[in-house]
Design goal:
Layout lengths: L3 H14 L6 H5 L8 H14 L5 E6 L2 E6 L4 H4 L12 H13 L2 E2 H8 L5 H9 L3 E6 L7 E5 L1 H7 L10 H7 L8 H10 L13
Antiparallel strand pairs: 1-2, 3-5, 4-5
Amino acid sequence: MLNPNEVKAVLETALLANQSPLSIADLRRMFDEEIGPDTVRRLLDELRDDWRARGVELVNLATGWRFQTRPSFQKYLERLNPEKPPRYSRAVLETLAIIAYRQPVSRGDIEVIRGVTVSPNIIRTLEQRGWIDVVGHREVPGRPALYATTKDFLNDLGLRSLQELPPLEEIARTLDLNAASIKEEATAAKTSGAPDGNASAAPSA
């Protein structure tokens, strides 16, 4: 039977070898013997402390645990890979903000808040990026789709739940969106109110 240090070494190896977050259940499947979830969480907390002074950190996200680069080191890594991440239009950012802070919402809800028609391409862009998904349909004529953010959206922001959503300006910085285009969207999101405390992120597709 593995001792705790050996179990922690296995957990560390698995997390370093995977780019996607791993849940407690995922990690427990690696062991022949039964290792309780509380034990795994305790060892993960120890592992997080072990890496606290390094350039890479262990974080607990919406879908599990993952090693990732500390934000303060990102500027150095970008010099190795100068390719610019995608920039999103003001319309895309407005739509994302409305969905994030008012979910679940229909396309019609978004159009009422924005005051303009929402292009299908905007919804498609956010779906393809994995940030939103259909979580149901409103029981009215036509049964319009209801959209909510996904756990991938939370993972990309480094969050575990919607209750941790930061101000829109911080979301823009984290997702590397165009900061010059978010002033009006930030004002709109704040006046729309924070996310419902009972809301939860939709599961990733």
